[in-house]
Design a protein that fits this description.
Blueprint: H1 2-39, E1 42-48, H2 59-71, E2 76-81, H3 92-98, E3 103-106, H4 130-139, H5 142-150, E4 155-162, E5 169-171, E6 185-187, H6 190-198, E7 202-204, H7 208-217, E8 222-223, H8 228-234, E9 242-244, E10 254-260, H9 261-266, H10 269-303, E11 308-310, H11 314-334, H12 336-358, H13 360-366
Parallel strand pairs: 1-2, 1-3, 6-7, 6-8, 9-11
Antiparallel strand pairs: 3-10, 4-10, 5-8, 5-9
Helix pairs in contact: 2-10, 5-12, 6-11, 8-10, 11-12
The structure holds calcium ion.
Calcium ion binds next to loops.
Length: about 375
């Protein structure tokens, strides 16, 4: 019995030695590869369209950089610059395209002048919510179309966060009818701005940092920005009395990471994977952050700052929706790429609308 036990123990020990041997040789081989790879270090500059460390939008690239630096064990260091630190907020696309910097973080609707279809990858009035949009991008053909659009500029796009449904915005006077939109100067970018123009307003494009003083001085009568979390940080409640919670112009705005394709191609496969995984993680966590913080910030706006919360009348919403449909048809007729991307987007939206009618829409009413 004891002999048998000793025999088994010896066999076990031998086995352990053999295994340990294998492990060791494997480990040193791995170590060799790792130390070779460690010598190859990359430092990337990432420019953004947001003020440095701005809550939500500006923190997405910061989180990305932190995760890439940690996952790559310092082999890829990403340094984040706020708008204007290296290049102005509206020049992020060009800087990445030209290779002045390796990466950018922005919103695709800023590039409408270069790529008419680009706004479809950030926000479409009366379009998809964040969840629907991510489903389209990853499983509905959206990513492939986006890559095709940016490819001629040497840029690889990746989803870079989502703000969730944005608020209608801040108004110095109440909007009780379509009449009240006539001549209204509102900071509102992209396609939504054009919709508002069709409805009689005057859309103005300003970067985040320029809005507050324009609203306070009366250079503009109204502004949209994001939602309570970001809007509270900008202090808009000090410059306008009415806050409209109606969701219409940006029902789930996607942000973007822009990557210089050549810089990406120079990375070894594991670092490329790290960049993609970190971007995806940031895309998800940004939406979660907005969902959590918007509600808390809205309470602060209403209770501490006595903001007057409003909703657009149905008449206004219906008018904006009609103008949106007309505008989308015009854009599709004017640009082949817009038509192609819009077809894919609107087909997916139509199927999601039906699906959600059967599921979440009634659930929200009943829970
Ligand atoms: Ca916005």
């Amino acid at each position: 019995m004891i002999k048998k036990l000793i025999h088994s123990l010896t066999a076990l020990m031998l086995l352990s030695v053999v295994l340990a041997g294998c492990g060791e040789s494997k480990t040193s081989a791995e170590k060799g590869t790792q130390s070779q790879a460690k010598q190859e270090e990359f430092v990337w500059k990432l420019v953004t369209s947001w003020p440095k460390n701005f809550p939500g939008l500006g923190m997405a690239p910061e989180k990305f950089a932190k995760q890439v630096n940690a996952m790559s064990n310092g082999r890829l260091t990403v340094k984040v610059y706020g708008a204007g630190e290296l290049v102005p907020g509206f020049e992020v696309f060009d800087a990445v395209s030209q290779g002045t910097v390796q990466m950018g973080h922005s919103g695709s609707y800023y590039w409408k002048g270069k790529i008419p279809a680009s706004p479809i990858f950030s926000a479409i009035p009366f379009g998809m919510t964040a969840t629907e949009f991510n489903a389209w991008l990853h499983y509905g053909g959206g990513m492939e179309l986006w890559q095709e659009l940016y490819q001629p500029f040497g840029i690889k796009p990746l989803p870079g966060g989502n703000s969730g449904a944005q608020f209608g915005g801040w108004f110095k006077k109440e909007i009780n009818s379509v009449e009240d939109l006539q001549g209204l100067k509102m900071r509102i970018p992209g396609l939504a701005g054009e919709v508002l123009k069709s409805a009689g307003a005057i859309p103005v494009t300003l970067t985040g940092g320029e809005i507050f003083s324009a609203l306070q001085s009366g250079a503009i009568d109204a502004t949209e920005w994001v939602g309570p979390y970001n809007d509270l940080a900008f202090g808009f409640y000090q410059a306008a009395d009415y806050y409209y919670s109606s969701v219409w112009h940006e029902p789930g705005t996607g942000l973007e990471f822009l990557i210089n394709q050549k810089a990406f191609d120079q990375l070894p496969a594991d670092l490329q994977a790290i960049v993609e995984v970190a971007a995806n993680a940031v895309n998800e966590s940004t939406l979660a952050e907005y969902n959590a913080r918007n509600n808390a910030a809205l309470k602060t706006l209403l209770e501490e700052h006595k903001v007057q919360l409003r909703q657009f009348p149905t008449e206004v919403m219906q008018t904006l929706k009609q103008h949106t449909q007309t505008l989308m048809a015009e854009q599709a007729a004017a640009d082949k790429d817009f038509a192609r991307v819009w077809q894919s987007y609107s087909d997916f939206l139509a199927s999601m609308r039906e699906f959600n009618k059967l599921t979440l829409q009634s659930y929200y009413e009943n829970r």
